[in-house]
Amino acid sequence: MVDSKIKLAIVGVGKIVKDQHHPSIIKNPDYELVATASRNGFLDGIESFKSIESLLANRKDLDAVSLCMPPQYRFTAAKFALEHGVDVLLEKPPGATVCEVNQLEKLAVMNDCQLYTTWHSRHAPAVANAKRFLSQPQLKIEEVLINWKEDVRKWHPNQEWIWQAGGLGVFDPGINGLSILTHILPASFFVETSILKFPENRAAPIAANLSFTSEDGYRIIGEFDWGISGGEEWNIEVITDQGKLILSSGGAKLAIDGEPQEVEQYSEHGEYESIYREFSSLVSNRKSNVDVSPLALVADAFLLGERIILESFDE
Ligand code: NAP
User: Fold this and answer.
1) What global pTM score does this model have?
2) Of 104, 109, 147, 253, which residue is the least packed, with the fewest Cβ within 10 Å?
3) pLDDT tens, 159-215?
4) What's the fold here for domain 6-117?
5) Residue among 69, 121, 178 to mutate when testing ligand 1 (max atoms within 8 A of CB)
């Protein structure tokens, strides 16, 4: 609980705001949700503006903004907010490029503001337990497999931005898996090979096969696919000398050597409730939390990527 409520506004009102941000914020007594800024979107009963410029011109009392528009449009809004002395929470991915997020980090320091690059999947219920298991001092990791597969028609209907340059394509969900991996593996790792599959009419990949090398020498194989139907595969498998860890359902479930592990039960908004608890603590302790490592891996996958062109994809 903070001394006085954080006066917060949401910018870019769309699916994730309605599904997660709004319900998580209103449950948290540390916040007063004072306004939204969005060209078309709004939330019932909350003052709404059409742009961040008019929001900040009219609400001089604002402490913080949550920026939830697509990543290609986030830098300009974040820069504007930081230059007006407002703390900033960034939805994932934190931007369209690594360097723009580095720039925001500098701007936050210059303006004495806090910046938080959120990675919601790191807040999934079984992730902390997985990290704890893998942090055992004597444990040796032998191999890692990450599968992040879903049906784009089910999860991203009519999201044109996601197929445009900077929208990341299959890495929009895939970066969630990479955000978990960069969080739970004790060693850092880098992209070694990358094959990206692009529909001929789209600027972002629909599937990707990556391999990574860790500084401890083990390999990581990653498969990302938007073309599957009949369910999702959001799984990470870590083979160690002390058992096989399987983190599944996007970080919600954990098994070790086939034995399901007990994890905290979450509400459907649990990941975002945890994000907003952390942001409140960052704001009241005047601290930033900036991590671009998952975005850097995706950027490197694009840098190294061998491109395979597939037939057109239409909704
Ligand atoms: P969305 O609904 O397609 O977009 C969010 C809002 O951004 C839109 O309603 C729109 O509001 C605004 N917007 C769209 N295009 C814009 C543009 N060209 N310029 C400025 N604003 C624009 O997307 P979303 O699913 O909420 O995702 C937004 C972010 O959250 C993404 O980075 C995504 O990776 C992340 N995220 C999404 C989910 C999910 O399940 N959907 C889960 C976790 C994280 P106005 O038209 O009112 O401006």
Assistant:
1) 0.97
2) 109
3) 999 999 999 999 999 999 999 999 999 999 999 999 999 999 999 999 999 999 999
4) Rossmann fold (3.40.50)
5) 69
